[in-house]
Design goal:
alpha/beta, Protocatechuate 3,4-Dioxygenase, subunit A, five-stranded mixed sheet, 19% strand, binds benzoic acid, binds fe (iii) ion
């Protein structure tokens, strides 16, 4: 006789036992793994993966669709495009990993997702320099300080900054080798920094591949809330990877990669054309904006 375990399920106790036995066998297959961390990770992965297959009663057609999706995700990936990272981003796995690895430390600035558009060897600019290098967009004066969690200035911190241009594109999407809308600079002896960037604009994550197809299928938008990326490093401090977001942006509560944190939302104050600039730069008939972002670094270590 088929003994149903609970109303509405078609899985008998005997069937449940058969399924549990598959999981047990696979878990046991890792018993000989010499690396305890790898063993832990593989056992947990299998535990959750099997639970998922059983919970949704995954059909063989659906399993094949999943394999096909992952195959396409691999095929479209290369040195310039990493569709698996994008998949991790839209599933919130990237942000969950950031959360696990960046526990709150006092008032230290919160971290957020790295994204795929960072490039090594960005140009260096001096204090007050301009990172746009010809990229389109409204100029934005960015200034602030870098301090440690006790409030002491951190001099010589390396501040990497990168952003999409005013049309919503990173330089890596231009199709040539230009570097624009990215640079690095160092905090001064009092831990201060200032530079000209571009007022951030919203843009879609790359959505012409399998991940974009997934977003369409589930009725989600690829748009990211407007932001400016920072990576700040200094000896004896935890490297901070973060962005700042624009207060008032309507995408703040539906960022496609779940990167927004309230503490990272800043006031980008609009300045009409002709308003004197902090460094007396003449912007002619262009409007501009300004923002202050004070960065607090956590100490290095666990
Ligand atoms: C970005 O902000 O650059 C980004 C982050 C995650 C996915 C795609 C883009
Ligand atoms: Fe970005």
């Amino acid at each position: 006789m088929n003994e149903r375990t609970s109303p509405g399920t078609s899985v008998t106790a005997a069937q449940q036992e058969r399924e549990a036995e598959v999981t047990r066998q696979v878990l046991a297959s890792f018993d000989g793994c010499a690396d305890p961390r790898l063993r832990e990770i593989m056992r947990s992965l299998v535990h959750h993966l099997h639970a998922f297959v059983r919970e949704v009663r995954l059909t063989e057609v659906e399993w094949n669709q999943g394999i096909d999706f992952l195959t396409r995700t691999g095929r479209i990936s290369d040195e310039r495009r990493q569709e698996f990272i994008l998949l991790s981003d839209v599933l919130g796995a990237s942000m969950q990993t950031v959360a696990v690895n960046n526990e709150a430390y006092g008032d230290a600035t919160e971290a957020t997702v790295f994204g795929p558009f960072f490039v090594e060897n960005s140009p260096e600019i001096g204090q007050g320099g301009d990172l746009s290098f010809g990229a389109a967009g409204e100029p934005c004066w960015v200034e602030g300080s870098v301090t440690d969690a006790a409030g002491h200035p951190v001099a010589g911190a390396r501040i990497e900054v990168w952003e999409a241009d005013g049309d919503g594109f990173y330089d890596t999407q231009y199709g040539d080798d230009r570097m624009a809308a990215r640079a690095h600079l160092y905090s001064d002896t009092e831990g201060r920094y200032r530079f000209w960037g571009l007022t951030p604009t919203p843009y879609p994550i790359p959505h012409d591949g399998p991940v974009g197809g997934l977003l369409t299928a589930v009725g989600r938008s690829p748009m990211r809330a407007s932001h400016l990326h920072f990576m700040v490093s200094a000896p004896t401090h935890r490297t901070l990877v973060t962005h700042i977001f624009v207060r008032g942006d309507e995408l703040l509560d539906r960022d496609s990669v779940f990167g927004v944190k309230e503490s990272l939302v800043m006031d980008f104050v609009h300045q009409s054309a002709g308003t004197p600039t902090p460094d007396a730069r003449d912007l002619g008939d262009r409007s501009w904006s300004r923002v202050r972002f004070d960065i607090v670094l956590a100490p290095d270590g666990p």
